[in-house]
Structure to design on (620 residues):
């Protein structure tokens, strides 16, 4: 059959031919709109269009069983790009309106690689949103050319929390110097907010979350930023993994930052916040945790494998926190010194721990349960750690375990740890090492107790104080402070120890005690120090060395003594007692005495006159 093309001179656009007008395979053209029609094998009329409208007619079928046919236009609308709304991405054109239009049109907006200049706020209020840049080697940059607060805002309301927001794969730069307190990327009242692969270069107040719950961060970094690099307020449930945040300070001793430049600032009721593998470097305060004006501070905050370095005033300042843990972290400045030794760091204090000063809710803002585990604390200009009261409230339950203190400076009061008001401070299994450039005169003390301050229930157990000539303890050691020096196995209790009850092993170096008995165990020998109960059977009362101590005296006398074998002189002979004759039963050297408890006339006292072993006893 010869196929024909039929020209229909029809002035009605969009009018298709009737199936009876065409044979199978014949094509008809509507001259009014240049529309093409063909009759298919099923006898149905299919339409085609001119090039300007091809997407509305041409079909797309996804691979896979069950896929349905769609128009190309429908398929392309699955993804919305800012370029669909006129964004150019050349770093010169103002793309603000195009970006806002794309966000208004779709919950998922992509930004192809390019530099998108914005001159006003990018706002997503109350709607679910995903903003996705290229990331990786194809950089999508947002160039901020305006100085307004909440420049890129994603927010819900207290009654309509915004759920499931995502910002991923962007680099942010400033085209002009913005006010350091104006927030750049701002989340408010959101649930399940996720940020990933974000880079902030020389930005003010880069990343802020307020009243956000159950959020996650991955690989977010800030370089030479100002203001608060990261600001969190009333954030509950945040897991952040991987990030380096550097502030405006260029080098130690160069005070280029100002108050308010904080790498991480947590304010108010932040709870369940965990940072892992982060670094906060060159800020006024590298990390600050503080109470809100209402008196509520962060709680249950943890850091793992995180470093705080080159802060100007403090590397880490905890003003109010109930539940803080740092595991396998480092706090200080490891600058290059002579021969690669540690040099003085720039921070006045590596770690400053205090309660909130005169808070509205003092009980809530009290700092407690602060634990540092296996952490290196070093190279501060003054102290490694300060624990201090504020507003009449002392931080409590502070623990440093398995930590190393190195190279903290000698500026008065200067040293490793300064206790200026604490409750239940514990220092266990820590090491105090090299000072600045191995100059052993630098650090003035390991632990300083501030005179006139209450430092109650302190425990310093199993620490190594190093081999340099510094004072282990300065100030006034509290009455109830317990000190166990691991270097010499020395145990000391200042003040009244009558209620001390501890336990220990029988045959190892250390301390043996039970109830009121306290004995130093060295090489499996027990040297009794003091007791307020009966001496146990295997404890030996003995001086530190031969003929160096007096048992009792003119002014201090024993009321009674119970000894199984009394060995006078050089200890070769003894005086003992028992029932029955000692002959053949009791051993001893010639000259020993035996008092028989059931003897009579001439059989009460025995003298060993000869022989060895149990023979040679003669009754007197």
């Amino acid at each position: 059959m010869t196929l024909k093309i039929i020209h229909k001179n029809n002035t009605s656009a969009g009018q298709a031919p009737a199936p009876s007008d065409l044979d199978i395979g014949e094509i008809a053209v509507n001259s009014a709109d240049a529309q093409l029609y063909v009759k298919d094998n099923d006898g149905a009329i299919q339409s085609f269009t001119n090039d300007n409208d091809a997407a509305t007619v041409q079909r797309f079928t996804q691979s896979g069983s069950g896929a349905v046919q769609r128009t190309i236009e429908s398929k392309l609308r699955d993804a919305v790009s800012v370029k669909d709304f006129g964004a150019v991405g050349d770093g010169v054109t103002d793309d603000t309106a195009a970006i806002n239009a794309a966000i208004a049109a779709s919950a998922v907006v992509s930004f192809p690689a390019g530099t998108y200049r914005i001159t006003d706020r990018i706002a997503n209020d109350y709607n679910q949103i995903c903003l996705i840049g290229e990331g990786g080697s194809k950089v999508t940059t947002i160039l901020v050319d305006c100085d307004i607060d909440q420049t890129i805002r994603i927010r819900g309301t207290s009654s309509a929390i915004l759920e499931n927001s995502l910002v991923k794969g962007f680099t942010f730069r400033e085209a002009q110097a913005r006010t350091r307190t104006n927030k750049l990327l701002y989340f408010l009242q959101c649930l399940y907010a996720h940020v990933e692969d974000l880079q902030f270069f020389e930005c003010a107040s880069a990343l802020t979350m307020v009243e956000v719950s159950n959020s996650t961060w991955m690989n977010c970094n800030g370089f030479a930023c100002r203001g608060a690099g990261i600001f969190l307020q009333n954030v509950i449930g945040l897991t952040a993994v991987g990030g380096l945040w550097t502030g405006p300070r260029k080098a130690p001793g160069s005070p280029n930052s100002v108050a308010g430049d904080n790498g991480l600032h947590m304010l108010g009721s932040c709870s369940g916040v965990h940072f892992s593998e982060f670094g906060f470097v060159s800020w006024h305060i590298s990390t600050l945790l503080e109470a809100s004006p209402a008196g509520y501070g962060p709680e249950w905050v943890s850091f793992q494998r995180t470093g705080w370095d080159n802060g100007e005033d403090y590397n880490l300042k905890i003003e109010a926190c109930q539940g803080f843990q740092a595991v396998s972290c480092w706090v200080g400045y490891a600058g290059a010194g002579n021969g690669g030794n540690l040099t003085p760091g720039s921070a006045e204090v590596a770690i400053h721990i205090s309660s909130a000063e005169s808070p509205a809710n003092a009980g809530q803002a009290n700092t407690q349960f602060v634990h540092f585990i296996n952490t290196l604390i070093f190279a501060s200009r003054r102290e490694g750690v300060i624990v201090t009261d504020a507003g009449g409230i002392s931080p409590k339950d502070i623990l440093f375990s398995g930590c190393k203190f190195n190279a903290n400076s000698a500026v008065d009061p200067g040293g490793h740890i300064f206790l200026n008001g604490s409750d239940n401070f514990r220092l266990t299994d820590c090491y105090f090492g090299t000072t600045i450039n191995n100059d052993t005169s630098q650090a003035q003390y390991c632990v300083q107790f501030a005179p006139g301050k209450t430092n109650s229930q302190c425990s310093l157990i199993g620490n190594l104080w190093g081999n340099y000539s510094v004072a282990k303890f300065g100030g006034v050691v509290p009455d109830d402070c317990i000190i166990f020096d691991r270097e010499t196995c020395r145990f000391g209790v200042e003040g009244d120890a009558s209620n001390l009850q501890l336990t220990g092993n029988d045959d190892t170096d250390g301390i043996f005690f039970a109830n009121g008995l306290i004995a130093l165990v060295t090489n499996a020998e027990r040297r009794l120090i003091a007791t307020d109960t009966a001496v146990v059977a295997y404890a030996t009362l003995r001086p530190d060395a031969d003929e160096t101590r007096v048992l009792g005296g003119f002014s201090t006398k024993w009321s009674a003594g119970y000894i199984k074998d009394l060995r006078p002189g050089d200890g070769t002979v003894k005086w003992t007692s028992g029932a029955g004759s000692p002959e053949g039963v009791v051993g001893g050297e010639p000259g020993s005495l035996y008092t028989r408890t059931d003897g009579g006339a001439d059989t009460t006292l025995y003298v060993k006159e000869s022989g060895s072993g149990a023979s040679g006893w003669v009754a007197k």
